[in-house]
Amino acid sequence: MNRLKFELIWRREHLPINYYYRHALQAYEVVIEQKPDRRFGVFITDERAALEGCESFFETEHEAFAAAIDKARWLKAYLKQDS
User: Fold this and answer.
1) How far apart are CA 23 and CA 73, in angstroms?
2) Dihedral through CA 70, CA 72, CA 10, CA 20, nearest 10?
3) H or E segment at 72?
4) For the chain, what is the domain count?
5) CB neighbours (10 Å) of residue 31?
6) What do you get for the CA distance between the two ends of the chain, in Å?
7) pTM (2 decimals)?
8) What is the DSSP string of 32-65?
């Protein structure tokens, strides 16, 4: 998934994504980060804005974008179901 498609989906669906730490970590969001070894990490935060579960790593930004969209859609549905 390219950056333009990622940003269109992210904004249109109002997904809880923190893209390269554009803001401080918040509870229940998906975070995309670039590691020093140039890989891309994607993880979900918990209610304390800490890493929840495990972080997934990808070789390309395109793979990270696709994973972040999938995780954010799941998280949004989970939070809606829980309320």
Assistant:
1) 20
2) -100
3) helix 61-82
4) 1
5) 22
6) 31
7) 0.91
8) EEE-TTS-EEEEEE-TTSSEEEEEEEESSHHHHH
| Class of residue 59 by CB neighbours under 10 A (exposed 0-12, middle 13-18, buried 19+) | exposed
> Order of strands, edge to edge, in the sheet holding 40-45?
17-19, 30-34, 40-45, 51-58
The DSSP call for residue 69 is H
In tens digits, what is the pLDDT along the chain, a chain of 83 residues? 999 999 999 999 999 999 999 999 999 999 999 999 999 999 999 999 998 888 999 999 999 999 999 999 999 999 988 66
Residue 80 burial class via C-beta count within 10 angstroms: exposed 0-12, middle 13-18, buried 19 and up: exposed
